[in-house]
Design goal:
Elements (H helix, E strand, L loop, with lengths): L2 H9 L7 H21 L5 E4 L3 E5 L4 E7 L10 E8 L2 E4 L6 E3 L3 E5 L6 E5 L8 E8 L4 E11 L1 H4 L1
Parallel strand pairs: 2-10
Antiparallel strand pairs: 1-3, 3-8, 4-5, 4-9, 6-7, 7-8, 9-10
Helix pairs in contact: 1-2
């Protein structure tokens, strides 16, 4: 179907409206669809593995943000990444390994992904873990995971 046939098809039965009006309606609809796709969730991401995690004391885990499929490449260039536990914030843009509490260690998962690698989790770490990513366009994404710690004796 060529453009003229399409316009004739669209304007058919429009009770006297001009082809220009039909073109404006179709163009407006197409523009609306495009804007909906663009605005939908330009800077979305999903938290991996989940928003709740239950592990045994002394174990470790990974937690990171996965850009939503519809977003494509929008979150690939992460300019800032941080972790918040209780009221304490940790900058994950360095190679620094943080010790939280007595012996829980936290470090950045990877230079390309906003996430964390946690070792030797203790019961005192049972709280909400919030990871925040900021991309190069200043789009910010926050996701929180609630961590539950089971004692080693209860798991036997």
């Amino acid at each position: 179907m060529n453009p003229t046939q399409f316009l004739a098809f669209v304007s058919f039965g429009m009770s006297g409206r001009s082809t220009t009006t039909a073109l404006l309606r179709v163009g407006g609809f197409v523009l609306c669809c495009i804007l909906t796709v663009i605005i939908r969730d330009v800077h979305g991401a999903t938290l991996y593995p989940a928003d709740r995690l239950s592990i045994v004391e002394g174990a470790g885990f990974l937690m990171y943000l996965v850009p939503d499929h519809a977003v494509g490449d929008s979150m690939e260039v992460i300019s800032r990444c941080s972790l918040t536990l209780r009221d304490q914030s940790y900058n994950l843009d360095t190679d620094k390994v943080y010790t939280i509490g007595q012996s829980t260690t936290v470090q950045r998962f990877s230079a390309d992904v906003c996430g964390i690698r946690v070792h030797n989790v203790r019961a005192s770490s049972e709280t909400a873990w919030t990871i925040t990513a900021l991309d190069d366009r200043s789009n910010q994404v926050n996701h929180t995971m609630t961590l539950t710690i089971n004692s080693k004796s209860a798991s036997r």
